[in-house]
Amino acid sequence: MAENPAKGIFFAQEIHALQKEKLVLQTRRELRKTRIRRLLVEKAQAL
């Protein structure tokens, strides 16, 4: 089913939920990248 503004059919809640999930996943990805980078730096300094 597609949105149809003329009939008053909108999917705002679904769109909001998906946008929120996207931001959560992007944040997790950035945190993991930062953690991996930090661990690699620590490992290099230990050598």
Structure, described:
By secondary structure, this protein is an all-alpha fold. It has a domain at 23-47. Helices cover 74% and strands 0% of the residues. It contains one helix and no strands. The longest helix is centred in the middle third of the chain and has 35 residues, at 12-46. It starts with 11 loop residues before the first helix and ends with a helix.
Which descriptors would you attach to this protein?
47 residues; mainly alpha; 1 helix; rod-shaped
Quick summary of this structure?
With 47 residues, the protein is mainly alpha-helical. It has one helix at 12-46.
Topology:
Elements: H1 12-46
Helix share bin: over 70%
The oligomeric status of these chains comes to single chain
Number of strands: 0
Major pleated sheet: none
Question: What is the radius of gyration?
Answer: 20 Å
Tally of separate helices? 1
Q: What is the averaged pLDDT score?
A: 93
Distance between the termini: 58 Å
